[in-house]
Amino acid sequence: MTKKLTILLLLLIFGITIAYAGQIDFGASIRIPNSDGLDIDPGSDTDIDIITLGVSGTPRAWWDETNNIFRLTKGLHLSGSVTTTDTLFASRGIFHSSASTTDFTVINLKSTNVTTTLIYASGRVSTTNAYIENINVDEGTNKTMGVATLVGGSVSVTTTPVTASSRIFLTIQSPSGTVGNPYIVQRTAGVGFHVSSTSATDASSVGWLLIEPY
Fold it and tell me: Hey, which end of the chain has fewer CB within 10 Å, N or C?
């Protein structure tokens, strides 16, 4: 370790303010043994690059002075509660892994790129003001949306998210055979539901969507 770097680290440890306009390379981790944190003072109101990672995609966290917000160029994975009383912007994804149904609360949600912005939550997402231009719902095994094809006017759908109170919406995607009106015959919570048509020769593809009442 050089003499200059040793002096710099000592100054950091003892909480002495340092003004340095160059670049310093550290070959190991940095530990600041106090609760004061790391202050970045650019000297004026301007955008601030907080951290940039030298990996694929160049993830970056920075302060956007014009819009008065922190920005991330990659997704944000939060394992605890999230509460905001200000606008929450997302240009990539927001992932919340808590199983609690009350941990994700948003007052305002705005997307700067609706084609790529995703909110993942295993619990409830609550917002008092949301502008949503496009909603994407994941399909596949044990999901809340899918397509089933009627055979002889009926079909069974297996999907574990269905509950006794699920609102199940049905729409014909591709009409075939003698088209009737699809409806729910019965359901078994945690297992699936059965769809029938008013026409016994209906062979249409039927889209279905599960929504839980609040």
Answer: C
